[in-house]
Every structure is written in C-alpha cells, then in structure tokens.
Write a structure and sequence with these properties.
The complex is a heterodimer of chains A (321) and B (119). Chain A is an alpha+beta fold. Chain A has helices at residues 2-10, 25-32, 35-38, 52-62, 81-89, 114-124, 145-168, 172-176, 200-211, 216-236, 265-269, 278-282, 290-297, and strands at residues 66-71, 74-80, 108-109, 128-132, 139-144, 184-191, 239-246, 250-257, 300-306, 310-318. Chain B is globular. The chains are: A alpha+beta (321), B alpha/beta (119).
C-alpha cells in the first residue's frame, strides 16, 4: 500500500541512485549540497495529544503527506500517510496521535550531503525525513523527495545560466586587444515610424553591454536612456541610428536622425512638452518625458539639432569605479 | 514575505497569456501606468506592472526595466505577435477583466507596495 501512495505523491521517476551508471551533473550537485540546502525549514508539526482528525486537517490544508510529532520541542515520532491510512481503515480517527505514530524515527542531519538523503529515501522508501541539527539534536526541518528535486533543479538552472553567461561573455576582448585606447562601437539602425519595434534595438544593446561585462546598474541607465532616444527617433523622425561606444571610462551613445530636427530644444527639454499626435500618445508614447528622462539617466548629455536637417543627441553614462 | 507571480495569479485569478514557465519570479513591488516613459523612469526591477496598454512595445519596455511581469487590465486582448515576443523575451503577461483600480487594490491588499513604500 505504501508503495502505491508514494508513486502517486511523487510522480517523478528516476530519482533512484541505483539507476545511474556514470556520475551525472545531478549527482555531483547531490554531493556538493547539504540536506539543509534542500529541506523545508518551516516545520508543520503536531503534538502527541492532538487527535488524528487534527492530522487530517493539516494534511489536507497544507497539502502534505506526513508530519513530525513534537513534544515540548522534542521529536518523539512521525505520522506518515501509511499511519494515517491505517488509522482510517480501523476507524481510529478520534484517537490521539501518540497511539498512531511511528516512534522509531529515521532522521537526517542538516549538514549531511544531499546524496545521503537520496540513498536513504531509496533504501527505506519513506516519504519524508525529519532533519536534525548535528550538535543539538534539535529538529530544524523536514525533507521530502520533492524538496530534493526542487533544490537540484534550481541549482542546475543557476549553473546553466552561469554557463550561458560564460559562453557569451565577451569582456575578455578588452584584455586581449593591446592598444593605448580600445573603443568598441555598436551601431543600430532605427526606422522612422516603426512603432511595432520600438525599444527592440535597445534591448539588443542591453544584452551586448552585459556580455561585455558592463555592470548591470550602468547598463540599465544606458538602456533606459537609449530606449527613450530610440522611441524619439521612431516617433518624430524619418529614421536614424543609435551608436553606443564602449570607452574606457564611459558608455557614449549617439542617437542621430535624419530630420526634421527640433525647433526649440529648450522647450523640448521641458517635462511634459510634446509635439506627438494624439494617436501616438494613446499608445503611451510621446508624453513629453523622453528628453528629461534621458537627462536624468545620463551623466552628460547634449543635443545638436538643425531644423530641416536632423538631430544628434549624445549622452554618456560613466562606468562605476 | 516573498511574493511570487504565481501567488498573484492565484489570488487575482489572472489569465496567463505569456511566460507560463516564469511564474516562479519574485515580485518586489508594483507600478501602474499607461505612459511608457513613466514606466522607464519610475518602475523598478522586479516590479509588477499594471497597464491598459497592450501593444508590442510593452515587452521591450518591461525588458529594459527588468519588470517581473505585466498585468494587462480591462479584458484587453493581445495579438499573437506581442505574446510571442513576450515569450521570447521572457516577460510574463497576465490578463484580467478587472480594471486597473481593482487590480491595484487587490495587489495592495496582498501586501504589494509601490517602490517608495517598500523601504
């Protein structure tokens, strides 16, 4: 009976250590991490004097399949789903926990490697183990197979992200290239009136800056400003280009368009001033906050514009030292 | 207390329109605006963004600000291209027939605050 329930509640095959032939990434992690990394530290427990009906409520409400039994803070037993089913089958639901729990409790120490937990689950077939602190013997958590799977998946995911970052990392080019001054320029073409793709090029820029090892806070400021500049080119101009230069001490961005140019730059800089048509505003663009926003994000900013010709907006965000 | 997108989806009964596998993301606070520039200026990384806007551009804006998820209100339907883009850029989009006021009220009751109040 126990086996049946366990299959249903876990439903995740192949956690068995027996099934593995060569050491896998998962196994490596299982050696690396401790029981405490995977366990649930919030302990839901019952006292020996609670009734089995109290247990039923807890199992149902908390959606768990077993509970440690604590007497004045000390672990005295465990109620498993098997205990609970036995109890229902023999009509003892009103009895107290003490008479229905398993007293010979198998437990794990919080500082044991996770692999010990996995092999113990394998060997004994239980659904959960209480976790004790080595020094004091105090109950500090509960671990289930589900906890282990969740923990390993999380670690695998983190590792995967780290590898991804490593794979695409391009910051080494600054170390590899010997010159008195190395500058890298990234150019992005922006089509005028292409609302659909507004912000997209700035998104690419962001990914690239991060790959180049630019610190995320600096990259964020560059991206917010370049996103605004990109939207300005799309809304107001015939098209243009954003070029971002990674220099020694700063990211310098030029947003250059082919016109029509800004009539009154001072006015354009005023928060809330906008020449955008209503339908553009309805989309949430053109609120007259673009240039002030760029100014806020940037450490330096200047605009050159000739009506009838075009605009060159340049801003810089300094690298953090 | 840590709040996740999935808690919000359950609590507000939201429809998951994009980013089904990203609901484990933590939500650090909330922001509501239909003005993209104001999102770019004031929203913070990890915020949930409540908006009436539904066009494609909400995705890169959310990406630039590292928004944890977007709630599109008032039953506004999104086109396929936007949802595909959101999946690609890993921006969860959640939908509801409630209006922004109701959504924000419920988020607030769950304990989600604006960025100034979080401190």
């Amino acid at each position: 009976m126990g086996g049946y329930i366990k299959e249903v509640s876990w439903g995740v095959p192949n956690m068995s250590t027996k099934a593995k032939v060569s050491p896998t990434k998962t196994q490596e992690l299982a050696y690396e991490f401790k029981v405490k990394d995977a366990m649930t530290a919030e302990i839901i427990s019952v006292s020996p004097k609670n009734t089995m009906d109290d247990v039923r409520k807890l199992l149902q409400n908390e959606r768990i399949s077993g509970l440690p039994v604590l007497d004045r803070g000390k672990l005295v037993g465990i109620i498993s789903i098997d205990n609970f089913i036995d109890c229902i089958m023999s009509g003892r639901i009103d009895e107290i926990v003490e008479n229905n729990m398993t007293t010979k409790v198998e437990s794990l120490y919080s500082d044991e490697p996770l692999i010990h937990a996995i092999s113990k689950f394998d060997k004994l077939g239980y659904g959960r183990f209480p976790v004790l602190e080595h020094e004091t013997g105090k109950l500090v958590g509960v671990i289930t197979k589900g906890d282990i799977i969740k923990c390993l998946l999380q670690k695998l995911e983190i590792n995967y992200h780290m590898e991804e970052i490593q794979r695409y990392r391009a910051s080494h080019i600054f170390e590899d290239i010997k010159s008195d001054k190395t500058t890298l320029t990234l150019n992005y073409k922006i089509k005028g009136g292409d609302y659909k793709h507004a912000g997209e090029q700035s998104g690419y820029l962001k990914v690239n800056l991060l790959r180049l090892g630019i610190s995320p806070p600096v990259a964020r400021r560059v991206i917010v400003a370049s996103c605004e500049a990109e939207m300005n080119i799309i809304i107001f101009s015939k098209g243009g280009e954003i070029s971002a230069r990674v220099e020694e001490d700063r990211i310098r961005v030029n947003a250059i368009d082919n016109g029509p140019g800004i009539e009154d730059i001072k006015k354009a800089m005023q928060p809330g001033f906008s020449t955008a048509p209503d339908w553009v505003r309805e989309m949430g663009f053109g609120a007259g906050m673009g240039l002030p926003n760029i100014e806020n994000c940037a450490d330096e900013m200047k605009i050159d514009s000739k009506p009838g010709e075009g605009t060159n907006l340049e801003f810089s965000v300094f690298m953090e030292r | 207390m840590k709040m996740k997108l999935t808690d919000i989806v359950t609590n507000l009964d939201l429809e998951i329109k994009a980013g089904h596998d990203l609901l484990d993301r933590e939500v650090t606070g909330g922001f509501v605006s239909d003005i993209l520039s104001s999102v770019l200026t004031h929203a913070e990384s990890g915020n949930i963004w409540v908006t009436y806007q539904r066009h494609l551009n909400i995705v890169p804006i959310a990406g630039a600000k590292e928004i944890s998820g977007i709630i599109v209100v008032s039953g506004r339907q999104l086109d396929k291209e936007t949802l595909e883009k959101a999946d690609e850029e890993q921006i969860p989009i959640l939908g509801t027939s409630m209006d922004a006021f109701q959504v924000v009220g419920k988020l607030y009751r769950m304990g989600i605050r604006g960025s100034d109040e979080n401190v």
